[in-house]
Specification:
The protein has 544 residues and is α/β, with parallel strands linked by helices. The chain has 20 helices and 18 strands. 55% of the residues are buried.
Length: 544
């Protein structure tokens, strides 16, 4: 067979059955072979940036390796921003990238693709020659799983058209890790935990990926501790009576008060970044125990008093057994008063609604939106100022929750939503985006979402501006005109492409949005008009 057929076979042998991409000279024959010879489910994107973001969304909600493919030169440079996003969010992804003929120094699209990949923080694995195709593909896939980051599989053009012998390599599986804690480190940690009187158990994305929920709940009950999560673990303990919800800048008032009075935080699979710790203010006066499978993460972003390396579930179970042996008495932090305050918490009681006849208060709208969306859902969040409200919208579980802000970019949301909707088509995908971000990246792929028949609900928080910049102008008593834009009617654009579009200008029009969502037969876009002068408060989240 020819080289491009051998590459396609090697990818199929490694279990690649879904990919997102934009084809060009460097990858079109590989994709063609994957689709027609190996039954690949291929989602074409309009732009390379979106293809990589689709693979990110797919990987995040399925837990599988995401696969994207682009051609050489500008095909790769167009994809760099979402590639950095995927690196920083530790997304396992294979980016199949064509390259120009090695000997052709004057090719218009020639660029050092290795240096581009490495500059983004991605790994780089080239197809070395026609004899190493199967080995190189397997190595790239192995690295994706082992390093949990994107690996660029680079294919020089000339290799695709040489005759090669077919070769089959065993499928590379993700390594199963369940590391037990070191007794000496655990002894220090348990000493801190046992001496606390108001402990909190905190779970991050790492705890979610390890499946440690029941072990952490047993530990929390044994300690008499409430539970909380980072943003990326949002909803992990939903339904538990002592679930504080998000720990950090997005905490509710009740949660913030409980966290402030705590004397010990036991974190599992949580990086403890500045948003989780509120720039370390939430850890002030507390002993901190950090547990993580990766020793390099312990104490990396915040100071800790004890660090334990290992699997979250095994660490929690071992702590419980040690506490049982010591006949440790639970704390009284799980009080009836705290349980009642969490149960009766009403976010709407914490602010005065500022909706008008032509604009909606985003806090009020977010609370209402929580109730009109389908209960079982993926939730994808684009970047932007509006996030302070939209991040309150919960997903079915943490694996169904995707943010696109690890690199601080906007405009990556709809690509992620398409990938999430492809990976988990058994439930609707909700995209929450600002108007600036949607104009930057959403309109590019709106037609893709519609024509693919995906069940996506798009909600645009539209203040007619680049909101973060508007606020900076406003706070400095400067003219915010440079941040303002006259966008088209998003609802009308969606309708022209075959979707359902609804504009919400006041609270009375939310019912129309609810009806459109309930009766949807494809993509629904809700354009919510906001006042750019309104500085959103961060004290009125939807119920967690």
């Amino acid at each position: 067979m020819q080289g491009h057929e051998a590459i396609a076979k090697a990818l199929a042998d490694q279990g690649v059955d879904t990919a997102f991409g934009v084809v060009g000279d460097g990858n079109v024959f590989i994709v063609d072979s994957l689709v027609h010879n190996h039954g690949l489910r291929y989602q074409a994107a309009a732009h390379e940036s979106s293809a990589v973001q689709m693979a990110t969304g797919y990987a995040r909600v399925t837990g599988k390796m995401g696969v994207a493919t682009v051609t050489h030169g500008p095909g790769l440079t167009n994809a760099l921003t979402p590639l950095v996003e995927a690196v920083r969010s530790n997304t396992p992804m294979l980016l199949l990238c064509g390259d120009t003929v090695v000997a052709d120094r004057q090719h218009l699209q020639k660029i050092d693709q290795r240096q581009l990949a490495l500059a983004c923080g991605a790994g780089f694995e080239p197809i070395r020659n026609q004899h190493t195709i199967a080995a190189d593909v397997a190595e790239a896939v192995r690295r994706v799983h082992a390093e949990r980051r994107p690996i660029v599989l680079n294919v020089p053009y000339e290799i695709e058209f040489v005759e090669v012998e077919a070769e089959t390599r065993a499928r590379v599986a993700a390594p199963a890790l369940s590391v037990g804690p070191d007794p000496a480190a655990l002894d220090v940690a348990v000493g801190i935990i046992a001496s606390s009187t108001r402990p909190v158990v905190l779970a991050g994305r790492g705890a979610v990926l390890s499946g440690a929920r029941e072990s952490l709940l047993r530990l929390a009950e044994r300690l008499g501790a409430p539970v909380a999560t980072t943003l990326m673990g949002n909803g992990y303990f939903r339904g538990e009576p002592f679930d504080l919800g998000i720990f950090g800048t997005l905490s509710t008032t009740v949660a913030s008060e409980a966290i402030a009075s705590a004397d010990c935080v036991i974190a599992f699979g949580a990086g403890l970044n500045y948003m989780t710790t509120y720039s370390d203010t939430l850890l002030a006066g507390k002993r901190v125990v950090q547990c993580d499978i990766d020793p390099s993460r312990i104490g990396l972003l915040s100071r800790v008093d004890a660090g334990v390396v290992g699997d979250a579930g095994r660490i929690a179970d071992t702590i419980v057994s040690w506490l049982d042996e010591a006949e440790h008495k639970p704390s009284g932090f799980r009080s009836p008063e705290l349980e009642a305050r969490l149960r009766h918490y009403d976010p709407a009681a914490e602010f005065i609604d500022r909706s008008t006849d032509t604009t909606v208060d985003p806090r009020t709208f977010t609370i209402r939106l929580q109730n009109i969306l389908p209960a079982d859902r993926n939730v994808v969040i684009d970047g932007g100022r509006y996030m302070l409200n939209a991040l309150r919208i919960r997903a079915t579980d943490p694996m169904a929750f995707v943010t696109t802000t690890s690199f601080g970019s906007i405009g990556l949301g709809l690509g992620s939503a398409i990938g999430a909707a492809t990976g988990r088509s058994d439930r609707p995908t909700v995209l929450l985006a600002g108007d600036g971000g949607f104009m930057m990246g959403g309109l590019v792929e709106l037609n893709t979402a519609i024509q693919s028949g995906l069940d996506i609900i798009i909600v645009i928080y539209n203040d007619g501006s680049y909101g973060a910049e508007h606020i900076q102008f406003h706070n400095k008593s400067m003219d915010p005109g440079l941040s303002l834009h006259r966008w088209p009617s998003f609802a009308a654009v969606a309708e022209s492409m075959g979707a359902t579009g609804v504009t919400v200008r006041n609270l009375g029009e939310i019912d129309a949005a609810a009806a459109a969502i309930a009766n949807r037969k494809g993509v629904v876009l809700i354009d919510v008009k906001l006042d750019p002068q309104m500085i959103s408060e961060n004290s009125a989240p939807a119920p967690h």
